[in-house]
Design a protein that fits this description.
The structure holds two protein chains of two kinds. Chain A is mainly alpha-helical. Chain A folds into two domains: 69 residues; 206 residues, MetI-like (MetI-like fold, Orthogonal Bundle), CATH 1.10.3720. Chain A contains 15 helices and no strands. Chain A starts with a helix and ends in a 6-residue tail after the last helix. In chain B, α2 links the parallel β1 and β2. Chain B is an alpha/beta fold. Chain B contains 21 helices and twelve strands. Classes of the chains: A mainly alpha, B alpha/beta. Chains A and B meet through α2, α4, α6 and α13 of A and α1, α2, β2, α3 and α13 of B.
């Protein structure tokens, strides 16, 4: 084998070319996998959007149509078949109130668990966390009976109160406060600050990012909730938008696929907008609380 | 320090409690508590100075049905400013019945609701609905001529053991939809007998491109064929077992299962699920369809004048022409005060009156419940504009409900499943009939 400098150089450059090609191929494969995953995730949304803009004839055609007919009248038509404005107002009220209560309760509870020492603190926290293990379906019937006994059927509070406590929110805020240096509280104490004063003037402002994550998660969860509101509401006065969508989708004698697709599109829009605006906080929420310090 | 902490604790508690109290105050209203009324003997008397709230639970959650019912309710309230009608719509009859059962259990039943016959029988057994006889014969009741104006089959449909517990409301029946343009092109007449129907289906079928018939099988089609072929009884006299799998009726039940099975095998009939048959019909992949008149607006919307389609009566068998009666009736519930129920009765009278029913039929496409409604100039003009809509009401006298026993609800599913399996060739008709009979008897006797 030749060992002249040019031979060594060409051997090295061939090797680096090989490595660089291998890197490109790996990168290409990654992009292909990501693109396929994105296609799988986005295609249902695309199909829904296209169907919402098809004519009724095209929607019922045995041959699928991948391009829309631009029938914007589908949106106008389906808007008129149900009191959508009322449904949206109901969703805003329910999601808004649930978010405010959940954030408040998460803040107070997370603060207590994260900064205060009291007998049974850890046991209580574990018990609260353990509630996450209970499937929602298991508590559906007793919850319904409680709500019915309280006379709360077909009301806003039936949809708000059961979800006013967010276990994951409590956990997130607790983790955040655990990371706060104790010297902050000590300094505040020296200045004569009470516990609540420290929470209100120091800790809560610092916890804004975590609270934003909790607010976002609770809002989206409350907006998208279906089963519980479906069970406890009886009239359009209190039905949220997801239950309204289900009512439009079911009908005696036939279905209106273009109308249903249009309804699904505009019920999804508010949450989509919220997510697009606050996606950074949403993704932060996934990792928040996983590291200490 | 302690007093400021106490003050802050009180503030926090108030901050949490006040929204809860306010929200409780904003809760949905409900009808008057079930206390006894002051109407004395006549349950129909209303106090014109008293305010009434009537909850009407129904399943008209969207579309023309909802709009028409809302308009009629508004019209009624304008004439009766002291009566407020709360329409509470649910997405389906199944949900409505489930919610009704839950409300009855929670002692929060509405004053008036749409009910199916089977459900009403169950409510009557448990004393949840009231007999309408005292209301019919009350001061604010229905005259003899009024009662005679209802179609007898529809009025009888509202009776339980000879007593009127329901009045008809949104009734429909099954018809034969057909592609009029295609039949004209092929120079084929609309079949009027089952034999003609079977041969026509074979004639119009183009293997691989067009079926003669697309439909989603259910007990209703089987029951229609069964009656048309000569079948008589569905359940035994004591209501404890199925009767269609016994004696002379067994042959007709088997014939009803066998009628279309060879055509499914040969490709002349397409067995679908849900509303998929509409896809075939709209796309002209099938020439005929068997469905309720309630499907008409959905077909019209999908077809959008691409071709002419029409309705015809279900073809007759040797025993005559039959069709299944669909739709619900109205009942008054016990769990409200007597005077609230009096207001509900007045509203029920209004909804089933001639003028209200004309508006209801024209707006929704359901069948008229009174002869004077069908014969009215308004409806006759409407039928002249849309002749297809006349077919359903013309079949009223031959419309039937197989059974109103509570256990029949389960029978419906059993028969539908076995009928479908026989059609698809998953089961022989003998095996399917045996299973139908056994399962149905179990459901009826449980």
């Amino acid at each position: 084998m030749s060992t002249t400098p040019s031979a060594v150089r060409s051997s090295r450059s061939a090797s680096s070319r090989l490595q660089s090609n291998a890197k490109r191929i790996r990168l290409l494969l990654c992009y292909v996998v990501v693109a396929l995953a994105a296609l799988l995730a986005v295609f249902p949304l695309y199909w829904m959007l296209v169907t919402s803009l098809l004519s009724a004839h095209s929607a019922l055609d045995v041959v699928p149509h991948f391009l829309p007919d631009w029938q914007w009248s589908n949106y106008a038509r389906v808007w008129q078949v149900a009191p959508w404005a009322q449904f949206f107002v109901n969703s805003i009220i329910v999601a808004g109130c649930t978010t405010v209560l959940a954030v408040l309760i998460s803040l107070l509870t997370g603060y207590a668990f994260g900064t205060m020492k009291f007998p049974g603190r850890n046991l209580l926290f574990v018990l609260i966390l353990g509630l996450i293990m209970i499937p929602a379906e298991a508590t559906l019937l007793p919850s319904y009976l409680i709500v019915s006994t309280l006379g709360w059927l077909d009301t806003y509070q039936a949809q708000i109160i059961p979800f006013a406590v967010s276990i994951s929110g409590i956990f997130l805020i607790r983790q955040f406060f655990l990371a706060l240096p104790p010297s902050l509280w000590e300094a505040a104490q020296l200045d004569g600050c009470s516990r609540f004063g420290f929470l209100w003037y120091v800790a809560a402002p610092l916890a804004r990012p975590a609270l934003a994550v909790v607010a976002l998660q609770v809002f989206i969860g409350s907006w998208n909730a279906f089963l519980w509101p479906y069970l406890v509401t009886q009239s359009d006065h209190f039905r949220p938008v997801e239950v309204g969508l289900q009512m439009v989708a079911s009908g005696e004698g036939g279905t209106d696929p273009t109308g249903i697709a249009a309804a699904a599109t505009f019920t999804m829009l508010p949450v989509l907008v919220v997510f697009l605006i606050a996606q950074r906080q949403f993704i932060e929420g996934i990792t928040l609380g996983t590291s200490k310090g | 320090m302690r007093s400021s902490r106490l003050r802050i604790s009180i503030v926090i508690s108030a901050f949490l409690l006040i929204p809860m109290v306010v929200l409780s105050a904003c809760g949905g209203g409900s009808t008057a508590s079930p206390t006894s009324g002051s109407n004395g003997q006549d349950p129909t008397v209303l106090d014109p100075n008293k305010q009434y709230t009537v909850d009407f639970w129904e399943a008209f959650s969207t579309g023309a049905n909802k709009t028409v019912l809302a308009a009629l309710s508004q019209q009624y309230m304008q004439k009766h400013p002291n009566i407020k009608i709360n329409l509470q719509a649910f997405d389906s009859y199944a949900t409505l019945q489930t919610k009704l059962n839950a409300a009855i259990a929670g002692k929060q039943a509405p004053a008036i609701a749409q009910v199916y016959e089977n459900g009403a029988v169950e409510y009557q057994h448990t004393g949840q609905i009231v007999s309408l006889q005292p209301y019919i014969s009350g001061k604010n009741g229905l005259s003899e001529s009024d009662l005679a104006d209802f179609y007898p089959s529809l009025l009888d449909d509202g009776k339980i053991n000879g007593t009127q517990y329901m009045l008809p409301f949104n009734k429909s029946d099954e018809v034969l939809y057909y592609n009029a343009d295609l039949l004209q092109k092929l120079n084929i007449k609309v079949p009027t007998t089952l034999d003609e129907f079977v041969s026509t289906l074979k004639q119009v079928t183009k293997p691989g491109t067009r079926w003669g018939l697309s439909f989603t099988p259910s007990i209703d089609e089987w029951a229609t064929f069964y009656k048309a072929l000569g079948g008589k009884q569905f359940t035994s006299q004591d209501g404890q077992s199925a009767a269609f799998d016994k004696g002379s009726d067994k042959a007709y039940a088997k014939q009803a299962l066998d009628l279309l099975t060879p055509l499914v095998k040969s490709g002349a009939v397409h067995v679908t699920a849900g509303y998929s048959w509409q896809n075939d019909f709209v796309a002209q992949k099938s020439v005929f369809a068997l469905a309720t008149i309630a499907s008409y607006p959905f077909l019209a919307q999908g077809i959008n004048n691409a071709f002419k389609f029409n309705e015809a009566a279900i073809p007759a068998g040797p025993a005559g022409s039959y069709t299944v009666l669909y739709g619900t009736n109205l009942s008054l519930f016990k769990g409200v005060s007597d005077d609230t129920r009096a207001a509900a009765w007045d509203f029920m009278k209004f909804l089933t009156s001639k003028d209200a029913n004309i508006a209801f039929v024209k707006g929704t496409g359901y069948m008229p419940i009174r002869k004077s409604v069908f014969n009215s100039s308004e409806l006759q003009d409407y039928y002249n504009q849309v002749p297809a809509r006349k077919v359903g009401p013309q079949q009223i006298d031959s419309a039937f409900v197989p059974s109103i026993l509570p256990g029949w609800e389960s029978c419906r599913d059993d028969i539908t499943n076995e009928f479908t399996s026989a059609l698809k060739g998953l089961n022989t008709s003998d095996a399917a009939l045996t299973k139908m009979g056994q399962q149905c008897s179990d459901s009826l006797s449980s």
